[in-house]
Amino acid sequence: MSHVVVSGANGFVGRALCRALLDAGHRVTGLVRRSGGCVDGVTEWIDSSTDYNGIAETWPAGLAADCIVHLAARVHVMHDTAADPDAAFRATNVDGTLRLAAVAQQHGVPRFLFVSSIKAVAETDNGRPLREYDAPRIDDAYGRSKRAAEEGLIRLGDATGLEIVIARPPLVYGPQVRANFLRLMDAVWRGVPLPLGGADARRSMIYVGNLADALAHCATDPRAVRQCFHVADSTAPTVAELVRALARHLGKPARLLPVPASWLRAAGRLTGRSAQVDRLIGGLQVDTSHIRDMLGWQPPYSTDEGLSATADWYRSTH
């Protein structure tokens, strides 16, 4: 069995990944900024330095890991208040990532799995599911930082022999989900009419349990070395289908107004929110054939099972 270090082990995805690794019999060390929040069985490694500036000093004596899974990041936000968002994202998502990877290589860690984002390729699919080798069409500072980190890691791997593996998930959902997905559930729960009945473009997502399973494969399978993988659920619902499924699992009516997508885009242009509207109703399907062909990976949970588990959690908190 392997010894895997997980940065951000006490976060939404980190906790699910640690459970998957422990259940498979692996040893897990959680690299976190503060104590607490890791699942039972994870050994904590505390590094509170900014963007891993002190990682060389806090490296635990005798730590011999087989892989570092790097989840910790400055995440995408809709209304960034940073004076220079590109610089803020670069400091954490690029400089911090490369700093951690370089120190890991110096300590003999053979593999570094970087959890990137589909935003490192594009926000929309332009009518065809996004593939790993598609030319990037990046719209925001977060996506640019993830792409730059990928490219920096590949150069580091080429120069040092560190085995770089990259995973690009789309939107992640599941129990304890936050941000836009949680706001959508809040709206369905409260019975807010949503003008999304005409939103028929399909958008890939990934249930956190499926992402954890895929990352566990990427961290431990020898065939994953020097590969980039798009990971997603087997099905990509439309936004209207998603709302209906959430409403069904929450036991609420789906209050969907049949507003044409063209009207929503026009409203977005008038209000200066075109990017937000496009992210909501534009198509974003992900081609996952590479990880299926290379590693034989299949999502262990269906989208409906994932939505059911998410709704069960939500109901338990309301």
TrEMBL record:
The lineage of its organism: Bacteria, Pseudomonadati, Pseudomonadota, Betaproteobacteria, Burkholderiales. This is SDR family oxidoreductase. It comes from Paraburkholderia sabiae. It comes from the Bacteria. Transmembrane segments: none annotated. Residues 4-225 form the NAD-dependent epimerase/dehydratase domain.
